[in-house]
Amino acid sequence: MNPVDLGVGPSPAQNAALLLIVAAALAWLRWGLRAPWLWLAALLAWQAVMAGLALSGYFVRFDQPWRALPTVAASVAMAMWLARRPFAHPAQAGTGSQPSRSVPLRSGAWLTAAPPWAWVALQAFRLPLELLLYSLYTHGVIAQHLTFVGANFDIALGLSAIALALALAHRDRQYTGRAAPSAKSERWIKNALITWNLLGLGLLLNVVVLAVFSVPSPFQLFTAEPANRVVTQFPFVWLPTLLVPLALFGHVVSLRRAMGSAVRPISSVTRTS
After folding, report:
1. d(C-alpha 189, C-alpha 194), whole Å
2. What is the spatial distance between Cα 20 and Cα 15, in angstroms, rounded to a whole number?
3. ∠ at Cα 114 (156, 107), nearest 5°?
4. 146 part of a folded domain
5. 44 Cβ partners below 8 Å, 6+ apart?
6. Where are the alpha helices (H) located in the chain, listed in sequence order?
7. How far apart are CA 21 and CA 196, in angstroms?
8. Which of residues 110 and 55 earns the better pLDDT score?
9. 154 CB contacts (<8 Å, ≥6 apart)?
10. Would residue 273 count as lying in a domain?
11. Exposed, middle or buried by CB within 10 Å (0-12, 13-18, 19+), for 12?
């Protein structure tokens, strides 16, 4: 088999930056959102397989897209399955910041353990990620349309995630130990979260379409060079197999909580008797 020309690759500093973004996102998933260790172990095991395949050169056969597409599809499917786990009833999950010990975390009760602002904050990793993509563009690794100076506007979601999370966290602190916020205020927050998550999903879909159809495969639609080869290499293989599914997972959980009625109040206020 002839060697595949991967073009200009990321620098060691860019690889390290991606690893730091991944580490920060996983750390927030564990300690910010209280994901069970068992879930994280399964996630890390799957990503270790992805890393091994990338390091072996398995994904660089661009004339055989069936090599990469099933793994990405499986990652997305797992994220959706996890995000659709049944929520615990608020009486079971507890009214404070910790879930009731009587509810097994494998049931999905942990998805309501953290306040809404924590799920919004999860999406903040998209800000440094977009800055890293711009750095790849300036070094000739990816094409302009995959960045915020092209057709990828995901940086706005990362910036808004930080602002919205801070606003929601401040609001929660204001009401902690006090009377519950008004129904009107709760509806405003609920609608804001629904709108923000839907916009986030739209921006995420835009990125996925741009990235998938920029890979040099039989399905390539965006032919600007350099083509999107970097996602077949380690550690950037974790962009489509980990970071994109993680963003999808966070949006679906946040959206379900905002739209559902069998979860704790949207402000996640701790009430005292």
Report:
1. 9
2. 9
3. 115
4. yes
5. 26
6. 12-27, 37-55, 69-83, 90-93, 116-122, 126-138, 155-175, 183-212, 238, 244-259
7. 22
8. 55
9. 126, 129, 130, 148, 203, 204, 206, 207
10. no
11. exposed
Q: Rounded to whole angstroms, how far apart are CA atoms 125 and 25?
A: 6
The whole-model pTM stands at 0.85
Task: For tokens 């639609």, name the residue.
Answer: 221
Reply yes or no on whether the pLDDT at 270 is more than 50.
Answer: no
Spatial CB neighbours of 180, under 8 Å, sequence gap ≥ 6: 265, 267, 269, 271
Q: Are 260 and 199 spatial neighbours (Cβ–Cβ below 8 Å)?
A: no
Are 266 and 189 in contact by the 8 Å Cβ rule? The answer is yes
Overall domain count for the chain: 1
Give the length of the chain: 273
Q: Which two tokens stand for residue 193?
A: 């979260």
Assigned token pair, 186? 């709760």
**Tokens 């994901």 belong to which residue?**
35
The answer, yes or no, to whether residue 160 has pLDDT greater than 80, is yes
> Does residue 6 lie within any of the structural domains?
no
Residue type, 56: S
Token pair for 234: 């380690």
Full domain range(s) for residue 246: 12-259
- Residue 83 within any structural domain of the chain: yes
Q: Would you give the DSSP letter of residue 213?
A: T
